[in-house]
Amino acid sequence: MSDQKQTSIAKFKSKEALIGIIGLGYVGLPLMLRYNAIGYHVLGIDIDANKVEQLNAGRCDIEHIPNESIAAACESGFQATTDFRRASECDALILCVPTPLNKYREPDISFVTNTADSIKSYLRPGQIVSLESTTYPGTTEEELLPRVEEGGLVAGENIFLVYSPEREDPGNPNFETRTIPKVIGGHTPACLDVGIALYEQAIDQVVPVRSTKAAEMTKLLENIHRAVNIGLVNEMKVVADRMGIDIFEVVDAAATKPFGFTAYYPGPGLGGHCIPIDPFYLTWKAREYGLHTRFIELSGEVNRAMPEYVLNKLIDGLNEGGKAVKGSRILVLGIAYKKNVDDMRESPSVEIMELIEAKGGIVAFSDPHVPVFPKMREHHFELSSEILSAENLSNFDAVVLATDHDKFDYDFIKLNAKLIIDSRGKYRAPAEHIIKA
Q: With 90 as the cut, is the pLDDT of residue 193 above it?
């Protein structure tokens, strides 16, 4: 075992290492809290000066991360900064930055490369660099490796490079950072050993694979598996609806089979930072190898068509009552991308709102987790969450149930709404004023 590798491993095992986390959002903050809770000093680095100031004051905008947890972390040594020069102080640099798609639905890894460019001058022997952002196979080798080695360091000898994809499920009380197994791939066997030493302190189960590419592909497979199966059940929903069959009843019945079937439920489209995006990372990279991933792309087409499907159900429902979308007041229930969270990334609810507005509808929303429509890169509404009083509900021509938060009183909504477009299967019993979408 090389001296450098041995020293680095010993530092992580003794908890003397300073953990640097770059990107203090939905992925970076839970990881920070975990390392802080088990006795490590953690330095957070982010380009957002407002976020850094807020965190250092013990506050956080993410609903499921309590201010008390951030304040306690600050009291026990956590610090946030916008100064990338401080990367030199860290023994581990864990990159938790966004990897969105551009307008051509191609991977935008500029946050990864910009971060690597920002820290490369401050890298030193003994550090480990770990990328957690979802990306295409080859990113760590093709983009991070040359930047890490640019100053003369050699990955696997005096600096260590790994890929370990984030696995977070906000709103799911059954899992936390510690209990979700962690896949990790190293650029070399020595890199992997140091990576295991970094993560095994904080995570109950570390799952090593033989390369960074294998770890990158693992993350894509997990999310493509989900995207394809949701695409399948969304297509089944359209067929079942045309045949007068309740797809939710069918899925529930199929789920009683104790083997060979996993229940996926249809919805108004895909949301979040993973499922709608990750398949396109692989389809884009596959083209470099002359491959056309038809199965994945087809499921993407089906899922992307769902907001339009919901809109058409709304049009049908209003038509039945002799109304057009134009001039009608439409309330969208739930604008976060999944139930019981405040995360708006890639939310299909927002696309539904835009489609309604494009048809001349007067759109509003109600979401107990999102009091004010947030600033988003590509979407803009000057709206606040509506109160769900009997009078307010009855003033809308239609209610579109887009995200099925537990905080909604569904019986109350059913009693007071004129027309409900249910894209989540919350209303199983048929009713004249409820249309399944």
A: yes
Active site residue 60: no
Q: Is the pTM of this model over 0.85?
A: yes
Find out whether 331 and 366 touch, Cβ atoms under 8 Å.
yes
Residues in the chain: 437
Domain map of the chain by residue range? Answer: 3-210, 220-302, 305-436
Q: What is the pLDDT of residues 246-277, one digit of tens each?
A: 999 999 999 999 999 999 999 999 876 666 67
Backbone φ, ψ for residue 108 (5° rounding): -115, 100
User: Going edge to edge, which strands form the sheet with 206-209?
Assistant: 79-81, 41-45, 18-22, 92-95, 128-131, 160-163, 182-186, 206-209
Class of domain 305-436: alpha beta
Reported as a single tens digit per residue, the pLDDT across 60-93 is 988 889 999 999 999 999 999 999 999 999 999 9
Pick the CATH number of 3-210 from 3.40.50.1110, 1.10.760.10, 3.30.1340.30, 3.40.50.720: 3.40.50.720
Please provide the DSSP assignment of 317-345 as one string: HHHHTT--STT-EEEEE--SSSTT----T
Kindly state the greatest CA–CA separation across the chain: 79
Give how far the C-alpha of residue 158 lies from the chain's centroid of Cα atoms, to the nearest Å.
Answer: 34
Residue type, 48: D
**Across 201-215, average pLDDT:** 97
Interatomic CA distance for residues 333 and 222, integer angstroms: 29
Hey, which CATH number is domain 220-302, 1.10.1040.10, 3.30.1490.20, 1.25.40.340, 1.10.10.10? 1.10.1040.10
Q: What are the structure tokens assigned to 262, written together?
A: 């996993």
What would the mean pLDDT of 316-340 be, rounded to a whole number?
Answer: 96
Domain 3-210 matches domain 220-302 at the CATH topology level: no
Q: Is the pLDDT of residue 421 over 70?
A: yes
Q: Which of 83, 80, 143, 77 is nearest to 116 (CA)?
A: 143
Catalytic residue among 60, 96, 191, 274: 274
Break the chain down into helix, strand, coil percent, rounded to 5.
40, 15, 45
